[in-house]
Amino acid sequence: MNQNEAGVLAAERSLLDAMLRGDVPVLDKLISEDLLFTNQDGALISKELDLSAHRSGMLRVHTLVPSEQKLQHFGDTSIVSVKLRLSGTYGEAAFSCDLRYTRVWQHRQGSWQVIAAHCSPVSA
Predict the structure, then answer these.
(1) Mean of pLDDT values over 92-108
(2) φ, ψ for residue 52 (rounded to 5)?
């Protein structure tokens, strides 16, 4: 594994940890301003909408267990696919699900940022 691949995987771990802790400042650094994120319902979610769900407490992640992680690296861009077992609350509703995330990371101004992402439900 080269230095760039290690950097992307470290950024991915930081992102997952920030999601679990609801750490908006870390999420803000790791997510590009021009993020294109398609959620599991097919809706396009902006960075601000994503961050506001964490900031307001609307989204609270209680458990987050990654598995089946794959990485493809292309110069200053990397693609990470990971299966996540998630549980938490969205508003008053509890959730527990398995999702597959595909994230596109790009090295910008000395750090890795998510520029695009998509998640899909995974059958158990």
Answers:
(1) 96
(2) -65, -30
Question: In order of start, what are the domains of the chain with their CATH numbers?
Answer: 3-121 (3.10.450.50)
Mean pLDDT of the chain: 95
Measured CA to CA, the distance from residue 96 to residue 38 in angstroms comes to 19
DSSP 8-state code for residue 46: -
Angstrom distance (rounded) from CA 99 to CA 18: 17
Sheet holding 31-38, edge to edge: 44-45, 31-38, 111-121, 93-108, 77-90, 59-74
Provide the sign of the torsion angle of the four alpha carbons 22, 98, 67, 7, taken in this order: negative
**Contact status, residue 99 vs residue 121, Cβ threshold 8 Å:** yes
pLDDT at 109 over 90: no
Contact status, residue 113 vs residue 37, Cβ threshold 8 Å: no
Q: Give me the pLDDT at residue 123, please.
A: 84
Strands (DSSP E) contained in the chain are 31-38, 44-45, 59-74, 77-90, 93-108, 111-121
124 pLDDT higher than 80: no
